[in-house]
Amino acid sequence: MTSLIRSGGAAVRAGRLRGGLLAALALLAAVLPLQAPAKLPEPVARALSQAGIPESAAGFYVHEIGSERPLLAAGADRVLNPASTIKLLTTYAGLELLGPAYKWATAAYAAGTLKDEVLSGDLVLRGNGDPKLTVENFWLLLRDLRARGLRDIRGDLVLDRGYFAVEGYDPSRFDDQPTRPYNTGPSALLVNFKAVRLQFIPDTDARSVRIVTLPVLPQVQVVNQLALDANGACGDWVGKLRLDAQGNSTAARLAFNGVFPASCGERTRNFSVLGHAQYVLGLFRELWRELGGTLAGTVRDGAAAPEARPLASVESPALAEVVRDINKFSNNLMARQLFLTLGAAGAGAPATYDKSGRVLRQWLAGKGLSFPELVLENGSGLSRRERISARNLGQLLLAAFKSAVMPELVASLPLAAVDGTMRKRLSGAAVAGQAHIKTGSLAGVRAIAGYVLDAQGRRVVVVFIINHANAGNAQPVQDALLGWIYRRADDTCCRPGR
């Protein structure tokens, strides 16, 4: 009996020990959920190795919506250049702070007496940072002015651009490509992205190449000395043009001396030339002349006086549409315009990059998001300075998914194999059409960030950033990661904790 009692006591003690161990394990499990697996899935690790990119140069963060811990967090706290994926911060903040229905207005004022269709004074155009004041919308503004009884302007065209305090911008500073549209500087009165579109049209019968320019600006000279290559492959057709670009803020000359392969068919290339003021003047003169109007003076900067008479205005598309252009096509200039607008709206005009940075940090703090490593320069990602970690960019996307503007933000992202910068990616793959992904690309930088709907119908946040000389080889790694997220129900690695 004694032995039975003793053995029973031992059993009780053993049971208590097991219970204590289980409790300790439970406590440990409660402490550890935030520690995500750092081991890369095998297909991703293999693709990274084949690309010649060390894992130490990358940040991975994958988190299923509603899960307590990430599926994957490898190098997630490294501070990296995110390239254009930083546009997610700019556009999400814009949608919340300004609202999806926000519109920019561009207005025209008469600074003088208007009588019998003659303005004895200046016409003032006031800009408020519209990112999408296209040539069509600009024409509508001028058409409205004509309909309201203005024909002849005896004074100057005055540009009120004081909403943004951005001066001395050097379009060649980033990569010494000043005529590329992505290097165009922001302006409170940005018209048609300050771009000239050239359309190259091969004529095999005449054995020549036509160049059609839109808009036609008197300050821009296009010299066409292209030869038609009737048999050559299209390939790098842009490099074959042999462009000699010369000019300054008041005049420009684009001379083409190379060849254009007939196999390319019609192709289009955009160029950013002239200063903002001269571009607006040239376009205004041409459109105003077509509408039967005249402008006696020239162009200058100024402001609409309180007594100036409002004549007409035109509004931009709603912000919900603008962010689609920014994210689908990674439009750097539109992102900068939105970034500066946030500064003006939140901290007062004139907008500066510093004001905008402070407004975004205050907005993040109000949402309980602390990103101490965050460095913002212009909010577009066309920067060598901007920095964020993969984890915090992922946290931003998790917060965005709970936001009332989530539908607008997600719909603005390129859809894999369908549109935007992901249109030619992952065609035929299982994840095609199932991933809304913002891409980012700079020399030495490749990044993706967005949402994947996996094979089980679960929504997953993904952020993957590489900063390395071999970053240009990263597309197979990105594709492998997206593919793994989509089919991970069949993978034993890295399943989420709840």
Tell me what you see in this structure.
It is a single chain. The protein has 498 residues and is α/β, with parallel strands linked by helices. 30% of the residues lie in helices and 24% in strands. The chain has helices spanning 2-31, 42-50, 87-97, 135-147, 276-290, 319-328, 332-347, 353-366, 390-401, 406-411, 475-487; strands at residues 58-64, 72-74, 79-80, 105-115, 118-126, 152-153, 157-160, 195-203, 208-214, 220-224, 227-229, 243-247, 252-256, 259-261, 267-272, 294-295, 299-301, 309-315, 388-389, 435-442, 445-453, 459-467. Helix 4 crosses helix 5 and helix 7 packs across helix 8.
Summarize the structure.
The chain is an alpha/beta fold and 498 residues long. The protein has eleven helices and 22 strands.
Element layout with pairings:
Layout: H1 2-31, H2 42-50, E1 58-64, E2 72-74, E3 79-80, H3 87-97, E4 105-115, E5 118-126, H4 135-147, E6 152-153, E7 157-160, E8 195-203, E9 208-214, E10 220-224, E11 227-229, E12 243-247, E13 252-256, E14 259-261, E15 267-272, H5 276-290, E16 294-295, E17 299-301, E18 309-315, H6 319-328, H7 332-347, H8 353-366, E19 388-389, H9 390-401, H10 406-411, E20 435-442, E21 445-453, E22 459-467, H11 475-487
